[in-house]
Amino acid sequence: MGLFDKLAGWLGLKKKEMNVLCIGLDNSGKTSIINKLKPDKSQTQDIVPTVGFTVEKFMSQSLNFTVFDMSGQGRYRNLWEHYYKTAQAVIFVLDSSDRLRMVVAKEELDILLQHSEIAARRVPILFFANKMDCKEALSPVQCSQKMGLDAILNKPWHICASNALSGEGLTDGVDWLTDQIRLS
Amino acid sequence: MQYLRRDKKDEEDGSQSNPFQNLDKSAVLQEARTFNETPINPRKCIHILTKILYVLNQGQHLGTTEATEAFFAMTKLFQSKDVMLRRMVYLAIKELANIAEDVIIVTSSLTKDMTGKEEMYRASAIRALCKITDNTMLQGIERYLKQAIVDKNASVSSASLVSALHLMKPNYDVVKRWVNEAQEAVSSDNTMVQYHALGLLYHVKKNDRLAVSKLIFKYTKQSLRSPYAVCMLIRIASKYLDEEPEVADSPVYDFLESCLRHKSEMVIYEAARALVNLKNLKSRDLCPAISVLQLFLSSPRPTLRFAAVRTLNKVAMTQPMSVTTCNLDLENLITDVNRSIATLAITTLLKTGNESSVDRLMKQISSFMSEISDEFKIVVVDAIRSLCLKFPRKHHVMMNFLSSMLRDEGGFDYKKAIVDTIITIIEENSEAKEAGLGHLCEFIEDCEHTVLATRILHLLGREGPRSQNPSKYIRFIYNRVILENAAVRAAAVTSLAKFGAHCDSLCSSILVLLSRCLLDTDDEVRDRATFYVNILKEKEKALSSGYILNGLQVSIVGLERALYAYVKDSTHTAPFDLKTVPLATTPMKDQVVKPGKTAIETPSAPTKASAPVAATRQDVYAEQLAAIPQFSKLGPLFRSSPKPAELTESETEYVVNCVKHVFNDHIVFQFDCTNTLNDQILENVKVEMEPSDSDFEVVCYVPRPSLPYNTPGTTYALIKLPQDASSVTCTFTNTLKFVVKDCDPSSGEPDEEGYEDEYVLEDIDVLVADHVQRVHKTNFLASWDEIGDECEMQDTYALTQMTSLEEAVKQIIEYLGMQPCERSDKVNTDKNSHALLLAGVFRGGHDVLVRARLAFDQGVTMNITVRSDDAVVSEVVLSAVG
Ligand SMILES: Nc1nc2c(ncn2[C@@H]2O[C@H](COP(=O)(O)OP(=O)(O)OP(=O)(O)O)[C@@H](O)[C@H]2O)c(=O)[nH]1
Ligand SMILES: [Mg+2]
Fold it and tell me: Residue ranges of region Disordered (chain B) (predicted)?
């Protein structure tokens, strides 16, 4: 750490670092959401299914986020756990228009919650009920019912509807996350 | 950088020269957990990654689990923006790619880096990406790689071209779709990109001769800027020309020739080298290339002089006349300060010069023999060998030179080369024999290499007794018995016994010397001495020739196997029968066919002294066949045909080769098949055989269950030989039969349903020679007398087609499949008559000897006498020439 960084830290000028893991089924819009959260000039137009993971960074007013955007395809989901340990928060993206696979998403959530690296820790979990613009999209309330979110007792959680293409709902979610970190 | 500087300081302190020495693998892996910590400390992590790389490169083995753990910890480092750290991560990814599991986890991260804005990442990310990808993944990143090939950043373009080359082997069908991009990259201004692009283009097309010729024509016209690319094109062109019958008329040849006037020296040299190495070029057409190399000989740059003289040295081996024009320039290099150049110059001159210059050159070279390395000393020895064959009269100069080299310091390979050369000279030139044996005797007086000492003692035992004055070798040999280690003493004892067996006059003194060895401390020496003393005391020629001069002629590996089987079988009703042991054949390494010219030459590693008992090719076959249940009861393998016969034309759909394995009453035909169609899988593959003589009975086939594309597979047929011992020859017509299943070339996934098909193969002949195994008799006349004339047959033939004695000798040896003895395969060119002495064993263990007297007068007339212990065998062997 350079002298300036240290000074900035003391004066509270330096933003706090925040390590977030972004998971959810394939095609739910994880990469699209992260992309939209980045500053305009570093956004990309070309979003393809992720293979493995990528690391992205973005900022809110008071935090620097480092996000591990994981691949949601079935055969890569068992690799998520390698990144549980270092995660300070989890973003779980749901495709609210994909009613059929909501059960699959719930299964993955249950596995996450039972994992030894997560179960005992007070990790905040932010749910995006993404693709709210789609006609057949479920509301956040419906989503949380289907996902059984009420059963999560030992962790703070929040769900909000989002549209990754327009950016609608994203700041709402990020603000909640920022608050959680500040509280902790 | 910072820690590099620190290393330097450490070095100056002298406290620790290599900070990575004695790294403990598990401690390093433990440290790798630091990667999981946030925030990341780039400097510390770079240091740990360096340690991991060091440990891996020291050859330490990492288990899958620990490697995977380290790998995933390392993936966390992608959150750091430190350029040095990221590049270290790429290196580590490449090293761990084949050890850790699930390495595809970094695919998207690498794809992002290779297409991103940070130029420092892009090329290295491509290289790492290609290491971790597999066939299914490749489809996903294909479009990025195609774009990267035509990227305007040269290092990105080169990286993707080279990666494409690596990917091509397992993913040919994907990579071949990148031809258009590669073509575009060939027109790049960057020399490396152009070179790599041409390389990729060629490797994609290299199996399609027409496409290769188009490629050559296109790029020979449109001149390439990069000298590396031109060199590449020269190599492609010369490979192409080697398959062309008429070289000099081809425009491709004109291209090579024109490259001799290129502005880059590298290209000129490459072209000259290609031209002199062309297979089908006449010596006249070599001239332009030779002149260029001649110019290089006087270049101020040592590399060029070295390259040129090395190439000329090679040419001189086959075409010494073409190199004579360079003799003057080569003379100037004799005193070159670079001794490697000087040595090559002198040895080239030795090959091209005339007899009169030999003495002068030898004197010159001896002036600096002590300054050159063993490797080049061997070059000198090789030159002397060929020189002796060329100028037999010069053998005394050479012999003296060789013997002084023997006395000098030098490693095993060097000494072995000298001994080999002396032995070759002795074998080729009987006048040199006495002197040569004398030098070798002197050498073993002070020889630290047991292998060479025993070899020379063996040679003395073979050649000494027939020399003019055998007694003079005895002292040298007996000295070994007194002074040497057990292996050498044993060899000396055997050698002495041979003198006793061969020379009656020496027998009594040999017996005295051998008796002194009866109390040797070593078992082997004592056993040998006891055995020889008892045989020699019998004073019976047949005994001593059978047990001392000729020795055991069985395969050592086969003997071991037969004895083992005998000991394991607890009944022991019959005594062990030596006839059940397969006969000795030439060791495998002598039979290996030299591979064709490879695209890029590698210097051949010096062969190490081989294992004491090398399994021969036939021993290997015997073991393979014994493992097949249908063949387990056939008895010992008698003979395998030395060369596989091709039953298909080259470049057909299916390639089939056949090896014949002859047993006591059966023949096994081994068919090695290759399926060259990538859209087919063959199943239940067998070769059906139809004999011309119905007494040959097909017993069974061993089919090959499945024959996928390009993986050789073997199927067998078992034939029972006729009861009638005199019927031994037959012709078989053969058909390859199989079930075809079409399949997807890329995945290899076959269709459910198949259909039967067949393919006609060439005929196979079973000849007399297939029933005979070569055996060497050291003293042919003794063996001839021993076997007697009870079953002798003789006949006289006029061999009208033969145009020389040499040709006749070669043909007869081939027809009979027997071993020439007493060097009777060498025909003295001055004479017009010759006696050929052959020895062998016929199937069933019958000794056969043949004496053929040949006379030349327009055609060749032959009187042939066959002796064996069985009249039918004599008759069959006689019929082989008729
Ligand atoms: N209509 C609509 N489409 C969206 C929205 N978010 C993402 N998409 C689309 O959904 C598709 C998948 O988006 P990605 O961001 O690649 O999904 P992902 O979760 O990263 O998928 P994986 O990397 O395979 O796990 C893309 O075609 C997006 O354009 C949304 O809010 N509304
Ligand atoms: Mg994604």
Answer: 1-23
User: Hey, what are B249's tokens?
Assistant: 């008329």
How far, CA to CA in Å, does B172 sit from each of B104, B136, B751, B841, B860?
Answer: 20, 13, 22, 52, 58
Instruction: List C-alpha distances in Å: B593 to B187, B558, B609.
Output: 41, 24, 20
Q: In DSSP terms, which residues pair with A68 in a beta bridge?
A: A21, A55
Residues A6-23, mean pLDDT to the nearest whole number: 72
Contact B184, B150 (CB under 8 A): yes
Cα–Cα distance measured from residue B782 to residue B549, given in angstroms and rounded to the nearest whole number:
10
Identify the H or E element spanning A121. none
Does residue B432 sit in helix, strand or coil? helix
Q: Give the mutation candidate from A6, A76, A82 for the B interface (greatest B CB count, under 10 A).
A: A82
Question: DSSP letter at B774?
Answer: E
Backbone angles phi, psi at B80, to 5 degrees: -85, 145
Torsion sign, CA atoms B390, B393, B395, B397: negative
Q: pTM of the predicted model, to two decimals?
A: 0.62
Q: By C-alpha distance, which of B166, B150, B167 is closest to B158?
A: B150
Enter the ipTM: 0.90
Residues in chain A: 184
Asked if B140 lies within 8 A of A85 by C-beta distance, the reply is no
**Catalytic annotation on A73?**
yes
Give pLDDT, residue B483: 82
Structure tokens at B162: 């080279």
Residue A71 touches partner B, C-beta closer than 8 Å: yes
Cα–Cα distance for residue pair A98/B147, rounded to 1 Å: 35
Give the nearest partner residue to A53 out of B38, B105, B137, using CB atoms.
B105
Annotated binding-site residue? A72: yes
Q: Rounded to the nearest 5°, which phi and psi values hold at B176?
A: -65, -15
CA distance B662 to B669: 9
